[in-house]
Amino acid sequence: MDYATILQLLDTTIRLATPLMFACIAGLYSERSGVFDIGLEGKMLVAAMCSGAVAFYTGSVWAGLGAGILGSMAFALIHGLTSITFRGNQLIAGVALNFLASGLTVLVAQALFRQGGRTPPLTGDARFNPITLPGAEAMKDVPLIGPLYYEVISGHSVLVYAAFGVVALTWWVMYRTRFGLRLRAVGENPAAVDTAGVSVTGLRFSAVMITGILCGLAGAYMATALQAGFGKEMTAGRGYIALAALIFAKWRPVAAMWACLLFGFFQALALRSDVVGSIVPFRIPGSFLEALPYVLTVFVLAGFVGKAIPPRAGGEPYVKER
Amino acid sequence: MSDTSFAIELKGISKAFGPVQANKDINIAVPKGTIHGIIGENGAGKSTLMSILYGFYKADSGQIFISGKPTPIPDSQSAIRAGIGMVFQHFKLVQNFTVLENIILGAEEGAMLNTSLARARKTLKQLADDYELDVDPDALIEDLSVGHQQRVEILKALYRQADILILDEPTGVLTPAEADHLFRILKGLKEQGKTIILITHKLREIMESTDNVSVMRRGTMVATVKTAETSPEALAELMVGRKVLLEVEKGPATPGETVLKLEDLRIRDEHGVERLKGISLEIRAGEILGIAGVAGNGQSELLAALGGMMRATGRATLKGAALPLSGAGSDGQSRRRAGIAHVPEDRQHYGLILDFAAWENIAFGYHNDPDYQKNALIMDNAALKADTARKMETYDVRPPIPALAAKNFSGGNQQKIVVAREFEQDPVLLLVGQPTRGVDIGAIEFIHKQIIALRDKGVAVLLVSVELDEIMSLSDRIAVMFDGQIMGYRDPATTNERELGLLMAGITDQKGEAA
């Protein structure tokens, strides 16, 4: 395997890890506040459809992005109402929203465009296009670093850089701000927050809505940057993979980034069976490689990567008691 | 206009939950700079009243005055602003946060943490010096002892500049030494002009530390008296509404043959930590062996091993016959068949199924009893219900309705259901853990009488309790456990709380050297 191939792999890794990072950090806010969210997948799907459709109609990717975020936030609001206000079961609410998203997106896309549940292909300004970072062209020919900068670091859409920014911002919010302290506290012991005179409901709703925004970014990236338009079930389980990455990272932002990059790398490998074939001496079926990220997900969720302790109040609706 | 010499004045507070009147026209005035006790049985309405004062519930009617000013308290934030701090019975701390983080939570200055933390560190040092409230600001809560966690709760209130401190059953989880320290802190706070409201069911604490005491019964405030002018007996009578025997009446024990003999009993928990480190003891027929100790020093494991809930190593004999500690015959069913009755420490988890009816709960553990079977397949529920009705009458369970779910009985009556089930099986050995935890004073008297009656019938009794008073008044011999070992035996007639307290802290000689 030569240097160029490695760079190509890493480049794909970053592109594929981006939606995972958005979704994973999205889940981090919700789960750190004590609301389990298995519905990341559904929110991504809704965002992908909304952004694909609106970007097509308006021809503006930014309008599409806004629509994606709004769609995802609407679903987050339903999740918040069910699991915070009405103290429903968070897992069941999440699963229900995933089913709803799966059917609704195809139904709406079919009703609007009659293309078998897809949105029409996006072109030009209706998509996020790669940006070339300053100096990339100039550095292109510098040995080693040049191609790395040009191929891997430069040349992604703005959302890719935003994803890394979100990771850093989240770390800072969680560990350096009052909001972060309260958010972490409400996921561990809501009674402590309540008796300190801070609204548990308010905190959890803010967290769940942030989850909505970030899932919106994840879904919009899928439809308007990674691909050109919405397709049926296009998220393909990425919401669950993000959830696995979150557990793998033990609910910490920076670790979450590394976990998503790892999952992204496996997804990139799955696309390049030729590369894998050139390293290992025996033939690996392509479908096995494609299954790899999911196999790893099962592996992580089954707890083989050491004990991950979730936020202690996670999954429990808060009921005030004497 | 109200008197400004009162820190808190409540006028005509009423609160109903559906048909239940939890507080009826409560009037109370707490003078500034005093320690005011509030006592009452479970369900008397103390907690509801304090929840109203801390903004958890809104009163249906009535007014709250703070320092003479009418002050509505719709939420906890308003209570904190009015200078009220609350130390709950179950601490409201975030376990994996540091002391400092817990203290600033909800009282941060500005959106950034660094400045808040730095200021809190300085304030904390000041408070620690002023009130004997030392605690490491950077320690994680989960690494602190219960006594220290409680100090963090008090610090939290003081950091919010509370002038009125409400403590709900503060000594339930403390060793006698920790409790003494707490009362020293409270006295110091009082001298600084703070007003303290102490909710407790322990009459001794009321008598020792309060200036005034208010007694609640069934949602009403029945009396407020000066502590110096009353007595424990008078307070108990006010609480229950009838005369109560505070001292347990019991004759001398007449121990017979050895019933239970343990040699080198050991238990390792799932983390590989040894919880019991070689327990050897004997209990004879017709005697009560009381195990004193701070919760978490192996008493629970000892009961669990004997009750068939945990596997152990070592040797055990019951009336001379080997009692398996692991493998076949070491389960709860076999233990009951061998004549070991068990009133578990945590009745709501191990003693009862709360959603099941009383008559179903009465059968548990004895459900294979031939008396309860119609034939090989079908249970005789009618016989079981009749039996339950009879036991409920004997043990004065209220209300005496066999079909009522266990969760709908009060704590004391739940315990009576468990006690009725276990005591009526003619055991040779009775294991009883925390028999009166969360039980009303009237029911405590009854349960204590039943334990003594069983002893006088020749049953060997192993009593585990964190209430030293209970251990001292019921036991014929006292063993003190610390860190999975028995530190020594004492005679209840000649020992005292101080001596037991030292042993409970693992200190074996009077010079205060650790064992």
Strand order of the largest sheet of chain B: 6-7-8-3-9-10
Tell me the strand percentage band of chain A: under 5%
What's the count of strands of chain B? Answer: 20
Number of domains of chain B: 2
CATH superfamily of the largest domain in chain B: P-loop containing nucleotide triphosphate hydrolases
What is the total tally of β strands of chain A? 0
Residues in helix, % of chain B: 25-40%
- In the CATH hierarchy, what is the architecture of the largest domain in chain B at level 2? 3-Layer(aba) Sandwich
Gyration radius from CA atoms of chain A, angstroms:
20 Å
User: Greatest interface and its residue counts?
Assistant: A-B, 23 and 33 residues
Give the topology string of chain A: H per helix, E per strand: HHHHHHHHHHHHHH
Low-confidence stretches of chain A: none
**N-to-C terminal Cα separation of chain A, in Å?**
65 Å
Large-scale geometry of chain A = globular
- Range of strand content of chain B: 15-25%
GO molecular function (chain A): transmembrane transporter activity
Keywords (chain A): Cell membrane, Membrane, Transmembrane, Transmembrane helix
Organism (chain A): Fuscovulum blasticum DSM 2131
Subcellular location (chain A): Cell membrane
